[in-house]
Specification:
Structural class of chain C: mainly alpha
Strand order of the largest sheet of chain B: 1-2
Helix content of chain B: over 70%
Distance between the termini of chain C: 27 Å
Low-confidence stretches of chain B: 487-507
Strand content of chain C: under 5%
Radius of gyration of chain B: 22 Å
Order of helices and strands of chain B: HHHEEHHHHHHHHHHHHHHHHHH
Number of helices of chain C: 8
Low-confidence stretches of chain C: none
Number of strands of chain C: 0
Oligomer: heterotrimer
Largest sheet of chain B: 2 strands, antiparallel
Mean pLDDT of chain C: 86
Largest sheet of chain C: none
Chains: A mainly alpha, B mainly alpha, C mainly alpha
Amino acid sequence: MNDILMYSATGFVLFFLGLYFVAFAPLVITRILAINIMGVGIFMFLVAHANSHNGVTDPVPHALILTGIVVAVAGTALALVLVKKIQVLSHNQNVTINSSSDTDQHTIQHTEQSPNQRTKDNLHD
Amino acid sequence: MINALSFLPFLIFVPIIASLLCFWFKHNRSVILISVVCHSLLLVVSVCIFIDQANITQQVYVLASWAPPLGIGLSVNSATVVLVLLTSVLTFFYSVYSFIYFKDNPKQPLFWPIWWFLIAGIFALFASNDAFNVYVALEMIGLSAVALVAFDGSINALKAALRYLFVGLVGSLFYLMGVAILYRTYGTLDFNQLPTLVDANPAATLALLFITSGLILKTAIAPLHFWLPDAHGSAPAPVSAMLSALVVKCSFYLIAVYWLQVLPEHAPKAGYYFLGLLGAVSILWGSWRAFKVERLKHLIAYSTVAQLGYLFLLFPLAVQHTETTALYGSTFTASMYLILAHAFAKSALFLAAGDIIHQYGHDNLSKLSGLVKTSAVSTFTFAIAGASLIGLPPSGGFIAKWLLLSEAIETQMWLLVCVILLGGLMASAYIFKVLNIAFSTPSQHANHQVTHKQSAMAWMALVLACCAIALGFNAQSIMAPLMAPPVVVDLPSVHSMPSVHFMGVFV
Amino acid sequence: MFKDISVNNQQVVHRDTQSVVIRLSIAVLMAALCAITIYVLALSEPAQPILRNLALAQLDNTGVDNPVTAVLLNFRSYDTLLEIALLYVVVLSLYSCLFNPNESNLPPLPTFESHVIVRHFLRAFIPLIILIGGYLLWTGAYEPGGAFQAGAIIASGFIVVRVVGEPIIYPPWIDTLCIALGTATFVAVAIAVAFFEGTILTYPAGSAAGLILLIEIAATLSITLSLYIFYRMLGRL
């Protein structure tokens, strides 16, 4: 019983760690990874309890996890393509994005420099 | 008569087949044929289910012949028969509108498969009777909605879609964690079996908290609404209408199912009041932001936040009546009525906004003066759909708010009475702000690029707005099935309908 | 949350003390939530395994010996159907995100000359990968394995070929057909059996094993291609 609790505790820790980084990670790729880690936490919790009765495995959580993994893969692929597309678009032109007309959100001033300029700036740094 | 229960799988399989066919047969004419056939099938099936609801709300369609909890069941209750019918009718309108909206778009062949899959997801969610299956349905809705928000391809739309995707994924993961805890604690995922396994287990309350926080994020209630205006404002018009009218209602419906049907025994009483508080905050904050924003579609989107707040008043009101802590009764009827009225009015607003954007090329409120001259139909649509949002008689929105208000007065929750009245006033403020701009004389160089054409899109929006008004005229027939308790055994008398005598004034 | 989604790697993060305090307090809050959650779960007993007993009791009637496959493709086949359809729609969504009106099909990824050792190694390796995929697909009926595992393995083989720069050439109609093949087969089987048994997805007695294998083969093709397309699209941007 104790090791099951340990595994599920680890699952919850992973879930909340993922949640923290989804909210606060500076890079969008980290956020995508963090969402996957949240998912892994849930799967870990499920699979820990699949084995809790007299050593005979419960197949249902395993099936749920397989379904969940495919959904996670699909979501990750969509997120990655959106990110890359945004990256490509914002490198091609100087964009100023008002995230919304909403003032309770930060207005993103997203003035991209041209690649040359940026390299120069990096050199100066 | 054939048991309408056997029609239930049609609701999910017909849209999926339509999606596949639209993917393989891309030509405009075949897409029209497929869509007409499938939409008519869906309408017929939903009407059959609606008519036969007295028989089938007690039964479960057992998929794969494995009885739940081992297999998965499909079922409808008195709420979902209405929601399913609403979805069939509205998606039919949206599809016709989308044909006109995307007529010259080379990307159109990619729109239809995703669109039909979104419809399949909504039906799958309403018909589902299994906690994990609901998660899959949520993801179906979430991912296809993200793809449709990004359909435009502009960088703003992509950013809104990315944020929407993050919110959707985190929300469904919270939901999944809740389901995992439920499965671990009760060993079942079936909605019918879960309430029978009730015991005083704190883990169930924990699961409920996870599920609710995930779904609140997906419903965009006040502190967690930050993603909605951008996502709904950047999407193409028919998609915005679908998102505001149906998609956010799906997660609201799920919260109601969990708090009122599946786990009411575990729900902390304070939780109902807290949900109501969130709703009240949403009403006030959403209306205020709607009044302040500069873009027409953002205004409509913020108004969605406010109207969703009204739905959440269901919870504190329901917990006051012991017999309405279920998916029936007078308070629940008020919420369902609000869903109907809001769905029609909001669709009309977004579709009218789409027409305006088609004409002006933008939806910047400050440059829309003189709107009434260039697109009179859209302005008229805006006015009457707005009347339903405000709750002016004789609209559907009026009946819904009247029901809510009388419930609040009856249970002596004076704070809610104030919020409902104030919300109505604020709604009139932002609606009349748009009308004021529309009727003002344009400045000299304001509308240089306006194409003067009365399109079919504007008329379709008008039809929906008229539906929102018409809902106010036959309230009794729509509400009667919702008032009845689902089980016919001895139950305390159902509340007298406040609208019954009231309707006499207008009919 | 998500207000300032930045996609640039060179983003400089300014951390003033206020935001550090906010982050720290939220981190502490989350840790507390996590601790409470674990504590509550430690207090309550897990349920009796109702579903496990039911599933194992009915295993002989499912046509497969592996209980996980039985749950996936027989007891809860509806979930799996929706999820394969989800994968198909996400592939379409990627097409929609990368849509370019000037080109009808995706242009091929750039190829380059790979090292001779790598090339010879691949020549031996790829058939092996496909064989392992096929084995995983077949063995899913008896022990852990199945369509997803097989699809992932074969797709990884394709990606290895692409990573070292070798071209994979096949006609574009295979994309159009195979993306939807898994969903289409599953839906067709689901509806076809309804004519014999009266309920959607109910396999007729005796034919369950064959139908499950049919669905799994189609699903493997779809999953392989979907995963490979995910890679191809990301590489193309």
